[in-house]
Amino acid sequence: MSIHASAIVAAGAVVPDSCTIGPFCTIGPNVVLGEECELVSHVVVDGYTTLGARNKIYSFAAIGVAPQDYTYKDEPTQAILGDDNVIFQSVTISRGTVKGGGITRLGSKNFLMTLAHIGHDSQIGDGCLFANGATLAGHVTIEDYATIGALCALHQFCTIGKYSYLGAATIVTQDVLPYSLTSAVREGHAYNINKVGLVRRGFTEDQLKTLHRAFRFLLAGKRNTSQALELMRELEGEDAEYLVKFIERSERGILK
């Protein structure tokens, strides 16, 4: 085990021998680290927080810290992280609240850049990218492989659909469509499919054509959402079906 002499690891913390704990890190008594995690320096991991394997956390990040919520009374809520996440300088991840389900969750293979913030009770999938200063209020859901641009601000209880790309400085108060490009430059509206991102993730030409048709039904012309959904339900393929279901279950409405 490599633990720097200036680090503080509380009695009760679980730190495997394969982990590296750098200078001036602080690990609380109810923290469990997975194999081969690395805390570079000045990292705080606190609360009932569990990390999977091979997470790398850079300086001044604070993981599993108390939620910024008036109602929180130091209950033993949790933050749970998966494997292979890269968490850069000054990122903050709050643990959950009792009223919000008690768990803030981050999946695996996520890439969180400097000053990103994940609020209490948020649920983050796998393979997401958070650019500098991306900010999530509490209770936000981010589905797999979404990209959150720099300085984006996400209202509580919003859902960001899978494979979507949210442009820099976009303020989100409604759900963001899966597979979409949504940007403040377009007044916070979805304006196309995230073609570059989808190609990188292995989507076929047929899949792209189907999604393009679905988005044309939804965004082009003067159809309302109900009318667009009638046409979208006739499209074949899991992606179109998922897009329809996402819209149907949205409680806050969608950005379109």
Give me a quick take on this structure.
By secondary structure, the protein is of the alpha/beta class. It is 16% helix and 26% strand. A hairpin with a 5-residue loop joins strand 25 and strand 26.
- The domain tally reads 2
State the CATH superfamily name of the largest domain.
Hexapeptide repeat proteins
Silhouette: elongated
Strand count: 26
Beta fraction of the residues? Answer: 25-35%
> Secondary-structure element order, as H and E?
EEEEEEEEEEEEEEEEEEEEEEEEEEHHHH
C-alpha-based Rg, rounded: 20 Å
How is the main sheet built?
A: 11 strands, mixed
Write the CATH architecture name of the largest domain: 3 Solenoid
Averaged pLDDT = 97
Global structural class: alpha/beta
What are the segments in which pLDDT stays under 50 over at least 5 consecutive residues? none
Helix amount: 10-25%
Q: According to CATH, what is the topology of the largest domain?
A: UDP N-Acetylglucosamine Acyltransferase, domain 1
Distance between the termini: 51 Å
CATH class of the largest domain: Mainly Beta
Number of helices: 4
Order of strands side by side in the largest beta sheet?
Answer: 1-3-5-8-11-14-17-20-23-25-26
